[in-house]
Design goal:
Blueprint: H1 10-20, H2 23-30, H3 37-44, E1 66-68, E2 71-73, E3 77-79, H4 92-103, E4 107-110, H5 117-123, E5 128-132, H6 138-150, E6 155-159, H7 169-174, H8 187-192, H9 194-202, H10 212-217, H11 225-232, H12 239-249, E7 253-258, H13 261-269, E8 274-277, H14 291-302, E9 307-311, H15 317-325, E10 330-333, H16 335-367
Parallel strand pairs: 3-10, 4-5, 5-6, 6-7, 7-8, 8-9, 9-10
Antiparallel strand pairs: 1-2
Helix pairs in contact: 1-16, 4-16, 13-14, 15-16
Length: about 375
C-alpha cells in the first residue's frame, strides 16, 4: 500500500507534503499574510454554514457536471492559478494540467508559472485559462494575451488584488525567493528532505518560464526574475485598464480578487463575463473578509449577468456544496492540489482531485440532491421553512 492509499482527505495530503518538502517550500504553500487571520477565516467561516438535508430522494446516480467559461466540466471545481509549481515537484504545472484534463475540469496557468503557456497547452487536452496581471509594461500584457490566444486557451483571468505584494512573513523568515535560492533557506533543512533535494538536483533549472525571455534579452541574471515581475505590478491600475484587457482578449474573461458587491458590478461593466470571489488565499490583505462570507452579496449583485466563482478555503466536498448553495456557479481550488503535488507529484494531484470529487458526490447524495445543478440555497439552515 502506497502512502497515497492512506490519504483519506486533503489534510492527510497536507501532512505528506509537509513531510517531503523543505520548510520554506511548504510554508510558501501553507502560509498567508501577516497574522494569517484572513487565511484562517477562509476555513473557519465554512463551518458557520449548515446544510439541512432532504430525505427519500433517489440519489443512486449523482451528476457533478457543470459549465464554466463556456466549457463543459465533469466536476464542479477548477484549478486555481498558483506560482512556480516546480518548487514542489519537478512534475510541475504540466502534471497538474494533465490531472485536471483527466478529471474533466479547467486548469488555470499563472503568469508566475514555471512552465510556459505553450508547453502547458501542448501537454493538456482539457480546457485552460491563463491568469495575468495589469503590468506597467502594457506590451508584456499584450504579449501574454496573444500567446494565450495562439495556444487556444479558453479564458483569461485578470488578478486585481496585487497592486502591491502582500506581507508574507513566513517567506521573509525563510528567505524565500522566486526562483528559490537554497543557500538562504537552510542547507540542513534541505538535506533532511533528501527526496525533494534529489528531485531538485535532477530537474531542469527552475525559472519563471513565461517571463524568462525578458531577463535573457536584457542579459540579466536569472535571480532578478522575481524582482522583475514584482516591479511590473501596477498600483495605478483602474477599471479602464480592465476594460482595455477585456476588449483586447475578446473571449471569456474573469476578474479575480473581488470581495465587494460594488466591485462585482464594476467588473461586469468593465467587460468581465465572470467574477472570482477571492482574497488571494489570505496572502494579500490580512483582515479582509473571507471568500465564503463575501460570496452571497456578490452573487446577489451579479445575478444572471455573469458567472460567479469562489476561490479560497476549500478543503472538503461539503465546502463546494455550501459555495453552490450560497450562489457560486463553480469553485477554484489551490492549496489542495498543491499539497498533492508536494506529496507525490502528479499522482498526488490525481489523489487530491479524486478526494474532493468523491466527497462532493457523497455530500450531494446525503443532502438529497442528485445533481450539483439542483443546489439552490434551500439546503441552507437559514432558508428552512
Amino acid at each position: 500500500m502506497s502512502m497515497l492509499d492512506k490519504a483519506y482527505n486533503i489534510d492527510d495530503l497536507r501532512r505528506l507534503a509537509k513531510r517531503r518538502l523543505p520548510r520554506a517550500m511548504f510554508d510558501y504553500i501553507d502560509g498567508g499574510a501577516e497574522d494569517e487571520a484572513t487565511m484562517h477565516a477562509n476555513r473557519r467561516d465554512f463551518a458557520s454554514v449548515s446544510l439541512v438535508p432532504h430525505q427519500l430522494v433517489d440519489v443512486s446516480e449523482v451528476d457533478l457536471s457543470t459549465e464554466a467559461f463556456g466549457a463543459k466540466l465533469s466536476i464542479p471545481f477548477m484549478i486555481s492559478p498558483t506560482g512556480m509549481s516546480a518548487m514542489f515537484h519537478p512534475d510541475a504545472e504540466s502534471a497538474v494540467a494533465a490531472a485536471a484534463a483527466k478529471a474533466g475540469t479547467l486548469y488555470s496557468l499563472s503568469t508566475m508559472g514555471s512552465t510556459s503557456i505553450e508547453d502547458v497547452a501542448a501537454r493538456s487536452c482539457g480546457p485552460k485559462a491563463f491568469q495575468i496581471y495589469a503590468f506597467r509594461d502594457r506590451d508584456l500584457t499584450s504579449e501574454f494575451i496573444e500567446r494565450a490566444r495562439k495556444a487556444k486557451y479558453d479564458a483569461l483571468i485578470l488578478t486585481v488584488d496585487v497592486p502591491v505584494a502582500g506581507n508574507r512573513e513566513r517567506d521573509l523568515r525563510n528567505g524565500m525567493t522566486l526562483p528559490p535560492a537554497l543557500g538562504l533557506m537552510g542547507v540542513l533543512d534541505v538535506l533532511r528532505h533528501w527526496r525533494w533535494a534529489l528531485d531538485y538536483a535532477r530537474a531542469p533549472r527552475m525559472t519563471l518560464a513565461n517571463v524568462a525571455h525578458r531577463i535573457d534579452e536584457a542579459n540579466a541574471d536569472i535571480s532578478t526574475l522575481s524582482g522583475y515581475i514584482t516591479k511590473q505590478f501596477s498600483p495605478a491600475m483602474t477599471w479602464a485598464d480592465a476594460r482595455s484587457i477585456a476588449d483586447e482578449w475578446g473571449g471569456p474573461f474573469a476578474i479575480k480578487g473581488i470581495l465587494h458587491p460594488d466591485d462585482a458590478r464594476a467588473a461586469l461593466d468593465s467587460g468581465a463575463s465572470a467574477v472570482i470571489v477571492s482574497n488571494h488565499g489570505g496572502r494579500q490583505l490580512d483582515g479582509a473578509i473571507s471568500s465564503i462570507a463575501a460570496l452571497p452579496a456578490i452573487a446577489n449583485a451579479v445575478g444572471s449577468q455573469g458567472e460567479v466563482f469562489l476561490d479560497g478555503g476549500i478543503r472538503r466536498g461539503s465546502d463546494i456544496v455550501k459555495a453552490f448553495a450560497l450562489g457560486a456557479k463553480g469553485c477554484f481550488v489551490g492549496r489542495p492540489y498543491l499539497y498533492g503535488l508536494g506529496a507525490a507529484g502528479g499522482h498526488g494531484v490525481d489523489k487530491a482531485l479524486e478526494i474532493l470529487t468523491t466527497e462532493t458526490r457523497r455530500v450531494l447524495a446525503l443532502t438529497g440532491r442528485s445533481s450539483i445543478k439542483e443546489i439552490d440555497g434551500s439546503e441552507l439552515a437559514d432558508h428552512r421553512d
